[in-house]
## 1
Amino acid sequence: MTTPMTAAELYRHGLELLLEKDIGAWVDLWDTDGVLEFPFAPEGWPSRLDGKAAVGAYMRHYPDHVDLHDFPDVKIHQTTVPETIVVEMRGVGRLVKTDTPYDMTYIAVVTAEGGLITSYRDYWNPLAASQPGTDFAGANR
């Protein structure tokens, strides 16, 4: 029997999958009932996605909008709850539509149980969503 990945291992693996643009495999890291929240979502953008299917639908076109190149400066902090981590990181690349640089700082609070993501709160800069070519969440689809 294989030991499930820790939250930190799962998160780092997920970053590799995003760089490979393997959104299907990234979604497979989610529990069926996993919840993705965006506490600072701008008006018109989703603030909560319930379930793996909703997360998959939200992320399906992400590589068509953001071409990620790297996640420099990833810092994973373990909390007093073994299943929960806090992550500080940057995502860098380019916006596909405008071919302009993409550089976003994130803080995420992630819980994984049984080797799957059950909760992910993504704190990102909502002002960045107002820049041309940043409809990477499909809010205007």
## 2
Amino acid sequence: MTGARDTDHEGVVAAGHAAGTGWVVIARGELDQDTLPPLQEALVSAADRYPMVVLDAAGVTFGDSSFLNLLLQVHHLTTLRIAAPGDRLRRLFALTGADTVLSLHPDVEHAVCAP
């Protein structure tokens, strides 16, 4: 293993790779309490190893309150940056006020390079 998990996890975690001093986790699909465990494993594993974790959310089509809760938990473990959240995720973050807590970025490059 080269870092946090970098293989396919039941379709939810597409991949992972090093980026600067951090780790990028690429997620996809619908994220709810039934599909969340592989993403939780990938994010927590990355948070244990890296000072910064980027969640590439470009492929995420849905996230519920359990997904939001996971992001807030990981936010407390490491520097978490969310890259390329779609309109549905941005609405979820705005409605809950999570957009004032989480670090949102237009793409992975901006998330990795952010101060």
